[in-house]
Amino acid sequence: MDVASRLSDHPLFAGFPPEDLKRICEAGEIRTFEVGETIIRAGEPGTHLGIVLEGRVEVTSADERGRARRLAELGAMDYFGEISLISGEPTTADVKAVIPAQVLLIPHHVFSEALTAHPQVLQQLARTVSQRLRAQLTTRAVLEEAAEVGGPALDGSSTAEARVLVVECSATTLRYGYYDTECEFHNRAGSIEGLGNPSAEHVQSTLRGKTSTAVPGTPAGALEALLGSLTKPDGPLAGVEALSVIAHRLIFGGEGRDRPALIDDALTAELRRAPAAPPELQANLEALDACRRLAPSVPQVAVYDTGFFQSMPPTAFLYALPYELYREGGVRRYGSHGLTHHQAALLAADCLETPLEELRLVSCRLDDTTSVCAIGQGRAVEGSSGLSVAGELPGPTSVGALGPGAVFRIVRQKGLSLEAAERLLTGESGLAALSGTSGDLRDLVVASEEGNERAALALDVWAHAVRKCIGAYVAALGGLDALLFTGRYGETEARLRAKVCEGLEGLGPELDARLNQAPEASTNGASDIAAARSSARILLLSTDEPRMAASEALSVIGREALAAVFRRRRQPIPIGISAHHIHLTQPHVEALFGAGHQLTFRAPLTQPGQYACEETVTLVGPKGKVQRVRVLGPIRPETQVEISRTEEFQLGIDAPIRASGDLAGTPGLQVDGPAGAVDLGRGVICAARHVHMSPEDALRFRVRDKDRVIVRVEGKRGISFRDVLVRVHPDFRLDMHVDTDEGNAAELDQNAVGYMEAVER
Fold first, then answer.
1. Which of 242, 436, 440, 493 qualifies as a cystine partner to 489, CB 3.0-4.6 A?
2. CA 519 from chain center: how many Å?
């Protein structure tokens, strides 16, 4: 069968050059399915666009009672799998063969790449997507309710054939992980110990076992040996250039470096100039430079351990010092182990089957060093590490929190120089000095159980500091949904977890002693060791920092490819300023405007079916009022108020930044109307900036529902809006919404447009 010839007559591929059709056919797979055989199963990640070459297939979806509902029957040259292509979510329907069927399965990333070169396909594909989405939305809100379980990305960055090397280099040790997403048998991990000496020991672990060899003791020599081990005849790589990306785990990114980034000369120069960079960063950068020399054709990405903490507010990251020390010298709290805490939060959200943005979490990494992180609305809001990894908690050789008076007394008492004082407090103190035995937590547990009183005292001091930190973070979050334990000892040492949890019952988490000793793993690998009556869960989570870094690096490669597409196309997005307004339920309409009252149409809004009403209300808060707030129609199932940050101050309330409809945990206020008043228990938000798109728009911009993007507005006060939420629906028209504060800051007018720069996540 000449499949390429048949595709040339297909509406989706009209106008494709023969070489493009040949490439698509070569990348695809032709399979035959017997009667009743499942081709695609609902709930599984969507990975392919299917084209029926011969036979017939049936598309079905389960209704609320689990009964199969037939959506369509497809014959020769019909296609399926396009909804996952646009939504990025798992498939929402079963596809089965009605009679023997021959199907061409085209990987999503291959077809997505073709869209870049042939944008005329979008209209045809989008029309089909819209029709089928409407059919399925009658039984479930596909784009609203599906969990974010990704298939290959629309940007062509599918991880189906990715080969990633993750490198982390200190002054004495180089650690690494190699990942081949096509064949995990090739994966390996290892370390090179003894850098700085004439030779170092390279220990590498694969599925075959461990090997140990001597290698040069310089970072450049060690990396050359590492790359050589990957490219030797029995290695996983034909050559260094076969790597998809090299990810460098950097201990420090500095102010504003919250996301991984492609490495270039400008970035490395900026990192070298960073005023608060710890000495360990120099070893990171030395390895980075060596990798760029040894693998010049391979994209390289910086992944920062401090990046996750860049979302902390100034109240959390500033010290009470002269402000210029922060502005000029970068003296602030930067956090540490961000990859671990971020991954733990993602795993917890999956385990609890709750969106991460709705959870209040405290993550405890118990390892060679301990760190604690508070996570609210999906972001770090507090971290126990300070200007460096040696933070507020006692470490193996670092003192932890220490008042300035104690520092001055020690310096005067011993007559120490600045360098000697630093060495004492960060290298000669901590649990090792207090116990007189070891700084390792497991060693201290064993010694204390053998009757060593100083070891027991050191453990008690450590546990008290961790508990105090957890308590402060629960207060900062306003409550707790789950306490997370991760890290080498957080996952394995029941005695350490028990010491940390002593006395925390009043804050929510209550440990189950039996489960703590013998955790029961759930299907997703997490273990809940909280007592049944505990109001907060206690989860044990297995994190993998190198794998997390590999995932982050792959996403950067995809974002950069997208950014190039956006810059090349320069497609404008209309921007509208969304002033304060309110959506009402029918009972609240009648309470405010009179029995039987119906909203009065005033003017249409940009989104189909939405309109401004003649009715207005007054919002009443603890400190003031906001009058003439427009009611928008149609009627909603729950009343929702949207205001700006300035109006929050005017009213005296703290409304969170949320997507429309996400009202859990939001504050309320009083709403006054001409016929009465309503006291809202919740429902007031500061609307997250967002952009509405149809499926055709989403395909054109190469984004998915719930993506976060950067939109640039040019002009005399040019500004880039980050963290813009993408919402995709067949009935949406292309339109971005910002609130009045954001519009005023950028001096936007009624003709304002923006240009998409990149996808953030």
1. 493
2. 27
Residue with tokens 């969106």: 355
Measured distance CA(671)–CA(621) in Å, rounded: 9
DSSP state of 78: -
Instruction: Name the burial class of residue 279, with classes exposed (0-12), middle (13-18) and buried (19+) by CB atoms within 10 angstroms of its CB.
Output: exposed
Residues 360-408 have pLDDT tens digits of: 999 999 998 999 999 998 899 999 998 887 788 999 999 998 888 999 9
Look at residues 556, 546, 487 and name the one whose alpha carbon lies nearest to residue 248.
Answer: 546
Measure Cα distances from 59 to 132, 149, 417 in Å: 11, 21, 76
Q: Which stretches of 207-256 are assigned E, i.e. beta strand?
A: 209-216, 245-250
- What is the per-residue burial (b if ≥16 Cβ within 10 Å, else e) of 712-728? bbeeeeebebeebbbbb
pLDDT digits (tens, 9 = 90+) for 664-707: 999 999 999 999 999 999 999 999 999 998 877 787 777 878 88
Asked if residue 421 lies in contact with residue 410, where contact means CB atoms within 8 angstroms, the answer is yes
Owner of token pair 């003296």: 331
CA distances from 739 to 205, 295, 406, 649 (A): 53, 46, 49, 15
Q: What angle do CA 585, 588, 589 make, to 5 degrees?
A: 85
- For 222, the enclosing helix (H) or strand (E) is helix 219-231
DSSP codes joined into one string, 632-681: EES--SS-EEE--HHHHHHHT--PPEE-TT--TT----EEEETTEEEE-S
Q: Which residues contact 448 (CB under 8 A, 6 or more apart)?
A: 455, 456, 459
Indicate the CATH number for domain 3-145.
Answer: 2.60.120.10
Distance of CA 701 to the CA centre of its chain: 21
Residue with tokens 């430079």: 289
Rounded CA separation 639/415 (Å): 67
pLDDT score of 610 more than 70: yes
Residue 409: partners with Cβ closer than 8 Å, 6 or more residues away: none
User: CA angle 254-257-259, nearest 5°?
Assistant: 145
Query: For residues 6 and 16, what is the distance between their CA atoms, to the nearest angstrom?
Result: 12
Active site residue 305: yes
Residues 6+ apart with CB under 8 A from 255: 274, 310, 330, 332
CATH 3.30.700.20 fits 159-321, yes or no: no
CA–CA distance from 290 to each of 169, 200, 219 (Å)?
11, 17, 7
Q: Where are the beta strands (DSSP E) in 274-397?
A: 300-304, 360-366, 370-376, 379-383
Residue intervals of the chain classified under CATH 3.30.420.40 are: 159-321, 351-546
CA angle 41, 697, 130 (to 5 degrees): 45
Q: Sign of torsion, CA 437 441 447 453?
A: positive
| Alpha-carbon radius of gyration of the chain | 29
Nearest CA among 253, 285, 277, 271 for reference residue 168:
285
What is d(CA 145, CA 705) in angstroms, rounded to the nearest whole number?
Answer: 11
Q: How far apart are CA 709 and CA 571, in angstroms?
A: 14
Q: Report the predicted TM-score, pTM, of the whole model to 2 decimal places.
A: 0.62
DSSP code for 511 = B
Burial track 576-597 (b if 16+ CB lie within 10 A, e otherwise) = bbbebbbbbbeebbbbbbeeeb
Residue 314 has pLDDT above 50, yes or no: yes
Instruction: Please provide residue 461's backbone torsions phi and psi, each rounded to the nearest 5 degrees.
Output: -60, -45
Task: Tell me which long-range contacts 267-271 makes (C-beta under 8 A, separation of at least 24).
Answer: 267/302, 271/302
Helix (H) or strand (E) holding 206: strand 199-206
Classify 351-546 by CATH class: alpha beta
Catalytic position from the list 258, 305, 697, 739: 305
